[in-house]
Amino acid sequence: MLSLAPRAAGGWARLPSACGAAAVLRPSPWVEKSPADHAAFTRPCSSQKKVTRVCVRNGYSFGRLDLLGRRGSPLAHASVFCPFNLPKYKGKLDMSLFPVENIRNFSIIAHVDHGKSTLADRLLEITGTIAKTDQNKQVLDKLQVERERGITVKAQTASLFYNYEGINYLLNLIDTPGHVDFSYEVSRSLSACQGVILVVDANEGIQAQTMANFYLAFEAQLAIIPVINKIDLKNADPERVEKQIEKLFDLSKEECIRISAKLGTNVEKVLQEVIEKVPPYAGQVGYLIAGMKEVTEAQIGDTLYLHKQPVEPLPGFKSAKPMVFAGMYPVDQSEYNNLKSAIEKLTLNDSSVTIHRDSSLALGAGWRLGFLGLLHLEVFNQRLEQEYNASVILTAPTVPYKAVLSSPKLIKEHRKEEITIINPAEFPDKFSVSEYLEPIVLGTVITPDEYIGKIITLCQARRAVQKDMVYIDEHRVMLKYIFPLNEILVDFYDALKSHSSGYASFDYEDAGYQTADLVKMDILLNGNSVEELGTVVHKDKAYAVGKAMCERLKDAIPRQLFEIAIQATLGSKVIARETVKAYRKNVLAKCYGGDITRKMKLLKRQAEGKKKMRKIGNVEVPKDAFISVLKRQSEK
Do 143 and 114 touch, CB atoms closer than 8 A? Predict the structure, then answer.
């Protein structure tokens, strides 16, 4: 936690999203008031120049941070300050009114669409942080994509001032995402808190992401305040939800607070419980702004400490691990530099995206991007379009496979025995590999018991292995399966919702790798391989995937004056084929009679011409065809 400057001496701080270098925190002698009422920053200071005073929001500067390189030379400078939107007071804001014991840091966690952001709106209104109006909806959700989809993508912060029993408290709130793809954002937020508000829908009850978020908070040893939201709904059943919470989380019914965030019913009780149950901590949540040239120098999870006063680094912080990879190319290659700039700017505040340069004969220069999940990929693409007006081509998403090499030549080339494959074009031949590995996940499905049969059948069709089945109440069941990640990547969630009439929920976590019978499937057009359409599939699914790909290509490729053979192959073996018929002139149009041999002669001459044209003609697949074939659709 970053303390205010007067309290910073001897303290330490986790660096939430800034520099990965070693750091020295030199607090100012005292917090000074600046005439500015907004943030005003100068360019980075060099080691020979004075550190420029930085004015932050509400005019408070909180200290200086020298970022040191590996050999101890000054790398950059930054100022440390409180990130929260402090309310404007008529007079000078005296932070001494908030000693450490009167500060609470907490997050709101829940399954997606259970009312986190709505509850945050009510908390902001009750504490006077924002005016109470009918327009207060998703106040903390800043991005256009968040408002359009009704979800939280980035964790947002706010400081609330609340008087309880005659004492002024400073409550630092973090509103977190609810979707499984952004659980990394949740774990980062929880590392900066001492307590959480666990929100559960009174109608839907505990869902898969509720379970995942609870265990994140439980493992972090945070105080947990269970809140049952949406009690105003017609079908709300808070008693049933209380029993679920008691059975699964071992939290008593008496601890649950029944609220309606929409109407504001009983919301103030939540604030009071935060003060009563969440322990205080030494300082405030904070962030710093560093004058760094490369964002790659920033490592999330580093620990800051005072010069010559080293401390043990904070444990348990893992870097983001991409689960899905996709190729991204500009629609027009003249827009390459503009798209490159847009991607670089967007990854500044989304460090979980990994970038590798890539190129394609058909699509030109581009990138291979890694994401935390499919929704993360879609949100990133939507933000590119909305915030930077960029049009891109996205290839079909793939997962990172591994191969254990047996060829001494390849081991020497890669300098290791086990390699990770993020592009199907790099998939090594089976004769040089001892085994292939595919990523697996531990999936949790929570569903009404009437849909169990359909869901078990669906999971078995996706090569899943059942690990557990538990009734969480009289009518709801929790199923746990080990899934190959590739099997749930594209359309599993949609199929699950379809099989359960929308009532089932799904969550997953990384479970490592397992040995798999993987093959590379190539697509040939008249015998020539199209690299961009190659993909890695499980051998048991190869025929179905190849047939579907050939059928889509047949519909997408325009007819030529010669026949086009579309083939899906595994090595030299053809497993599926479709044919695009050639345009054909009716050479018998003027033959109204006569000997049949004349007609046969004309047809034979035409066939020989087509055969010759097929040998010398090139099949050019237009970009529109690539887009329609590579778009993310279900592979059945």
Answer: no
